[in-house]
């Protein structure tokens, strides 16, 4: 199997989330910035973005959803 096929050599990322329940990807080797926390989801950038695409279906910040009476 080639490096490209098995993912070796690709930069690894983690999925991070903030208090407003907004998601992002962050390079795994870097410290997570203040105000964000890492989830237990990691992989290539594309894998992390694919996960975010399935779970982050409402792009409104949490504070806006709460103000509108939603959770």
TrEMBL record:
It comes from the Bacteria. InterPro entries: MbtH-like_dom (IPR005153), MbtH-like_sf (IPR038020), MLP_fam (IPR037407). GO terms for cellular component: cytosol. Residues 1-54 form the MbtH-like domain. Pfam families: MbtH. GO terms for biological process: siderophore biosynthetic process. This is Antibiotic synthesis protein MbtH. It comes from Streptomyces xiamenensis.
């Amino acid at each position: 199997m080639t490096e490209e096929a098995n993912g070796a050599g690709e930069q690894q990322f983690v999925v991070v989330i903030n208090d407003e329940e907004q998601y992002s990807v962050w390079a795994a080797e870097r410290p997570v910035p203040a105000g964000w926390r890492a989830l237990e989801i990691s992989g290539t950038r594309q894998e992390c973005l694919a996960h975010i695409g399935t779970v982050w279906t409402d792009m409104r910040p949490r504070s806006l959803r709460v103000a509108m009476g939603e959770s």
